[in-house]
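step: validate -> pass
step: tokenize input -> pass
step: predict -> running
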Amino acid sequence: METMRERIEGAIDSAMKNLETSMKALAEGNEEALRKGVWKASADAEYALFLLSLAHEGGSKDSPWKSETSLKKLEAGPALALAQDLLAEAKEKMGASDLDEAYRRTWLAQGYLLKAQTALEKRRREDVGPDAPPPKAV
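step: predict -> pass
step: emit ->
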């Protein structure tokens, strides 16, 4: 049976793999693969946050660092790179059993992933028009 730590590390690993796929899709100009990869990475990061919050109570909603993040006008590429770095740091913190910092870095990465999703959706709407149907489900 998988331990909580293994589940968390697995979710972070999966998010990192999906981010790597997203970065390749970005370099290749494959918008659909990029959107899918970012969506999957975001879902994995959200799951890791959920598990981290169950494993440790360091994920308080009123943590002061949660209001420090400035995500104004950040394009998808830089947001993905920042998320990738933060998830790698979160994985390192898991190895050091520092759940507070693993949670913090995963939470910040999730914010960048959401920002990337917003930027990608905005770009999609600009390309196809505001009345275009939403992209197909993943």
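step: describe -> The chain has a mean pLDDT of 86.
step: cleanup -> pass
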